[in-house]
Design brief:
Layout (H helix, E strand, L loop, with lengths): L10 H15 L8 H9 L9 H15 L6 H15 L2 E3 L3 H13 L5 H11 E3 L2
Antiparallel strand pairs: 1-2
């Protein structure tokens, strides 16, 4: 994983991601709880996580569970995680429909937790060229 300092997303960047996703695919705009958004973005920065994949899983899970937005939380969680990884020289190699099915299945089974997300991220992670 990267030797350089990890680049993290800001609240403003995630708000811009949310606005773009709502504009593109519809839904209600707005933040439901700003504190929960800040908390989700802070979690990967705690120093607890050993590598970028672990930080990405923590970010993804926190955005899903904290549910900081009125609408679009799953979309934001996925795209914010992908942007976070890209900022740090990696990306998720996945297709849209399988990702949606994967997340829906995990949420239905209440298995959308850190460990499941981490395993999926590790399988899907590729270095940017």
């Amino acid at each position: 994983m990267p030797a350089r300092a990890v680049q993290h997303l800001s609240v403003d960047e995630v708000l811009a991601i949310h606005a773009r996703l709502i504009e593109r695919w519809g839904g209600a705009s707005g933040v439901r709880d700003h504190g929960l958004l800040e908390s989700a973005l802070h979690r990967p920065r705690t120093g607890y996580y050993a590598d970028l994949a672990e930080m990405a899983a923590a970010l993804f899970e926190s955005l899903l569970i904290n549910h900081p937005f009125v609408d679009g939380n799953k979309r934001v969680a996925f795209f914010a995680t992908d942007v976070f990884l890209r900022l740090n020289g990696w990306r998720l190699e996945v297709e849209a429909r399988p990702v949606h099915r994967f997340l829906t299945r995990l949420l239905e089974r209440q298995e959308c937790d850190y460990e499941h997300l981490l395993a999926w991220i590790r399988r899907s992670l590729v270095r940017l060229r």
